[in-house]
Amino acid sequence: MSYTLQYGQIWPYLPRLFDGAWIALQIAVLAFCGGLAIGTACAAVKSFGPRWLTRIVNVYVVFFTNTPQLVQIYFLYFALPDTGVLLSSFAAVLIGMTLNAGAYLTEIQRAGFESRRVSEMEAAEVLGFSRLQQIRYVILPHMARVLFPPLSNHFIIMTLGTSMAAVFGVEELTGQAFNINSLTFRSIEIFSVTALFYVALTLAASVLLAAIGRYVFRARTGLI
């Protein structure tokens, strides 16, 4: 069996792959920022909150870290309409990835809360800081520096995870590859080019995050 590579048939579709990469990046950024906000709030609850609220957060974290992300999005997109809640494919993917990221980032950021320096906390108490002021001015700046490398790694993983959006018809990078493949039937060419797009996307994100880590937080991400 012989197969002749014909990348020339793929070039006219490159703009569609760029559009798909842009959508994938939007999903990753929005879901990560949402997950970061959820994770910060839940980590604060687990570190300082009342026991009843901590139990609710624990149930959320256990559920979302012990079920497949694809099943979670399937539930949002296919099961919720039975209750009258209709979500677009983009919204279902975005909400599912945000909730999943929030659960994982809760555990990551809880480690940051626990790494706070006792001497700094004692100094904040002596100065009369409230609990919220301690979190705002003492704990969060310390966490930003300590947690920047693992958070950067999680963002890269989420960027690659946006490919599952294609299952729900979102025309992100993989979704565009499916569409182009159905038009050209050049599977080797289109998916090899798509893989290179993902490599370029994650490398660009790694370079940007590494630059932020070095010049803003004075930390090495280990990504590049």
From TrEMBL:
GO annotation terms (biological process): amino acid transport
GO molecular function: transmembrane transporter activity
UniProt key word Membrane: yes
Membrane topology of this protein: Multi-pass membrane protein
Keywords: Cell membrane, Membrane, Transmembrane, Transmembrane helix, Transport
Location of the ABC transmembrane type-1 domain: 21-209
Protein name stated in the entry: ABC transporter
